[in-house]
Specification:
Blueprint lengths: L9 H14 L10 H14 L8 H23 L11 H5 L4 E4 L7 E2 L2 E13 L3 H8 L5 H4 L4 E12 L2 E13 L3 E16 L2 E15 L7 E2 L11 E11 L2 E13 L6 H27 L3
Helix pairs in contact: 1-2
């Protein structure tokens, strides 16, 4: 696992930065300590005891949140007049804007040693059709090309059609590079459904997430229960697509569960940690839109 340069002592690193600020008569700005704080976060993530599985209370809260979200999506998809949310953004989307919304309730961010992240992204692809989206997203073998460099490998494990719903089981190796480079093998249950020729939706639920130690080396192996660092415990994604106005409106919601931020660092690294799910969602949305654009 790659890390960025560590100070010999985290306290010494912070004290040195503060001393330099003061000795040069420059007003002290907390933002100037961000590299040191990120180094602290990196060091903390690697030296804290392994996270293992989330606490039962965290899993229960996550499952309850997911149940409410999926119920809301069923109502949203059956409403007819408002297939995507919120309404009234079509003009902005047709001009090429990607609209990203944070949906995590303030009172649900941190609980029982875990953090919940909920983001929504919406885009419009001129000339694309709902059938194009379904064909693209069901081609798991193409994911390493479409979603590079985040998706490194993808493999279809199983497929079953049930009336108008196609069910898949897929395995993906994903790589997230921020302060740390983290590689994970993730397994998903995925379903794609056609409401009518112009409307599609899909849902993806993680069934297993294993952090990989020493990826790409002869010593590569998945970390077992109680050994991982809790970078990602759960990840659910929900796509909604509507074909109209000469193109395809696409919306994806992502809900993830991760380990909470170390005590005392939330004020500094909280915004950074929260940006990772947003950036991943936006990357997925943009990659999908780029793959659907007509030459």
């Amino acid at each position: 696992m790659q890390t960025y340069g560590r100070p010999n002592s985290s306290k010494q690193y912070l004290d040195t930065n503060m001393a330099l600020e003061q000795s040069n008569d420059v007003p002290f700005r907390p933002a100037r300590l961000l590299p040191a704080l990120l180094a602290l976060l990196t060091l903390s993530a690697l030296t804290r005891p392994a996270a293992g599985e989330p606490m039962p209370a965290a899993v229960s809260t996550f499952n309850g949140y997911i149940a409410a979200l999926e119920s809301r999506l069923v109502h949203q998809h059956s409403a007819g007049s408002v297939f995507l949310a919120p309404a009234g953004t079509e003009a902005r989307l047709r001009q090429g804007e990607f609209i990203i919304d944070k949906l995590t309730p303030a009172d649900t961010v941190t609980f029982s040693g875990a953090m919940l992240h909920h983001w929504r992204g919406t885009a419009f692809v001129p000339g694309a059709k709902a059938s194009d989206f379904e064909r693209l997203m069901e081609d798991f073998n193409a994911y390493p090309r479409v979603f590079a460099p985040e998706v490194v490998q993808a493999k279809l494990l199983g497929h079953q059609d049930d009336h108008d719903v196609a069910h898949f089981q897929a395995l993906m190796r994903v790589r997230q590079k921020h302060v740390l480079t983290v590689v994970m093998d993730t397994t998903y249950e995925v379903a794609f459904a056609q409401l009518d020729p112009r409307h599609r939706y899909s849902l993806s639920r993680s069934t297993n997430i294993a952090e990989i130690d020493a990826p790409g080396t002869p010593n590569e192996h998945p970390l077992g229960p109680g050994e991982d660092h809790g970078f990602l415990w759960r990840l659910n994604s929900y796509w909604s697509c509507e074909e109209r106005d000469g193109g395809l409106y696409m919306q994806v919601e992502s809900v993830s569960l991760t380990r909470s931020i170390p005590v005392g660092l939330a004020w500094a690294v909280g915004p950074f940690v929260e940006s990772v799910p947003r950036e991943s969602l936006e990357f997925t949305l943009r990659s999908t839109a780029n793959a659907l654009r007509k030459p």
